[in-house]
Design brief:
This is Mutator-like transposase domain-containing protein. The protein is α+β, with helices and mostly antiparallel strands. It has 3 helices and 3 strands. The protein has one domain. The C terminus is likely disordered. The structure holds zinc ion. The site of zinc ion has 7 residues, from helix 2.
Amino acid sequence: MDSPHVMHLKTYQRIVKQVWSHKDLATSTSQLQAVEAVHELYHECDPIIGCDDIIDIPVSYDSTWHKRGHTSHFDVDIIVDHMTGLVLDIAVLNNYCQACKTAPSEEDLLFLTWKEKHAPDCGCNYTGRSTDRSTWTLVITR
Ligand SMILES: [Zn+2]
C-alpha cells in the first residue's frame, strides 16, 4: 500500500503565499468592477450623484465561520449590494498561522528576529476568538 504523499511545510507555505497573492489581485479587480457598476447604477437613478461621491446604499452583510461550534480559525465576511446583488467586499479573518505555531519561543533570542521577518507573511489578521465576533458592529467606509 502506498503511503500518503506529505508536502514539506516550506513548500506548503510557499504555495499558500502564491495563492494568497493571486487571490488578492483577482478579488480586488472583481470588487472594483462591482463598486463601479453599483455606483454607475445609482448615478443613473440619481444624476446628481457624481463619479467620486460617497453614497449611502442599502447592503446585506453576512459572516460565516469555517466550522460550527465556535472552534473555527477562519471567517468570511461578505457585503452585498441590495439592489444589484453584486458582492462589494469580502474579508477573510484568520486567527491561526502554522508558521507562528512552529515559531521559536518568545524567550528565545531568535524570536524577535524571526517575528520581524515573518510579520509581512503572517496569515493571522485577527487575534480574537470566533465567539467574539457575535457582538461586532459593522462600519463601512468605502
Ligand atoms: Zn504567522
